[in-house]
Amino acid sequence: MFVCCPLGPNSAKYEQKVPVFYYRPTHTDCQLLREQWIRARYERKEFVCVERQEPYSAGYREGFLWKRGRDNGQFLSRKCILSERDGALKYFNKHDAREPKALMKIHTLNASFQPGKIGQPHGLQVTYLKNNSTRNIFVYHKDGKEMVDWFNAIRAARFHYLQVAFPGAHDADLVPKLTRNYIKEGYMEKTGPKHTEGFKKRWFTLDDRRLMYFKDPLDAYALGEMFIGSKEKGYIVLPGLPPSTQGYHWQFGITIVTPDRKFLFTCKTEGEQQDWMAAFQGLVNRPMLPQEYAVEANFKHKP
């Protein structure tokens, strides 16, 4: 059983040299992040002796993680390499393979702990973009410190990339961009673009302005994605569905109007409908950033 160390007047000395990219968990984060944050400070004294930060600050990390197979769902040991010089995270299907099975560019990389979703207490979901579509991989390590070190190594690589990409930017502006948790996830039903197909139950993930849907929460690829812009760009969120809509099983509907078409969803309960509505409305009410206009322009809404 892990016992949290109380903060005393001398606790600041244990945080003298916390790297700016290192994730400081809050009470809403998973137990693993909170526990390892405390152990890093008091047991390992990583923020007093910078040499102990080598596992995540060196710009290169190599090791083996258990990765979930895309087809059979089994977790298999895979060699992983994170290299700032190469600007990528790679994994290999065979330990002696020369070419990686996947190459994930650091500039599109994200990582978030998902222990409940993955079914592992140290489960990490890593996402990246491939041909402007989201790809997921799910990994874990039996050693909690090892997994948190990988997480912070990804954050360090992202931080150094953003420093180059946005010269002169303040650290405080870059840190929120290192990794992000999803705004909301859960099941809804949806229909196709013509609104004549039957509604189908799908798992939805709202990753900032990108709404993705999957047949299963642990699918590697999304079945479809849509961009949610601002009201200034003509995006509107409405409760309910058009009167002519038929074929849905869940009665709590949501209509998202975009410049291209209307997207129709239904939720199982009124509470879920309100939660999704609030998440969508928050995005619609938020003015778009210049880089988001470029994302929208390149985005292809899939059915």
TrEMBL record:
Protein location: Cytoplasm
Key word Repeat present: yes
GO molecular-function term, one example from the UniProt record: GTPase activator activity
Protein keywords: Cytoplasm, GTPase activation, Metal-binding, Repeat, Zinc, Zinc-finger
Residue ranges constituting the PH domain according to the UniProt record: 58-159, 181-285
Gene Ontology cellular component terms for the protein in this record: cytoplasm; plasma membrane
Major place of residence: cytoplasm
Entry superkingdom: Eukaryota
CDD domains: PH1_ADAP, PH2_ADAP
Pfam families linked: PH
PANTHER family hit by this protein: ARF-GAP WITH DUAL PH DOMAIN-CONTAINING PROTEIN 1 (PTHR46021:SF5), ARF-GAP WITH DUAL PH DOMAIN-CONTAINING PROTEIN 1-LIKE PROTEIN (PTHR46021)
Protein name listed in UniProt: ArfGAP with dual PH domains 1
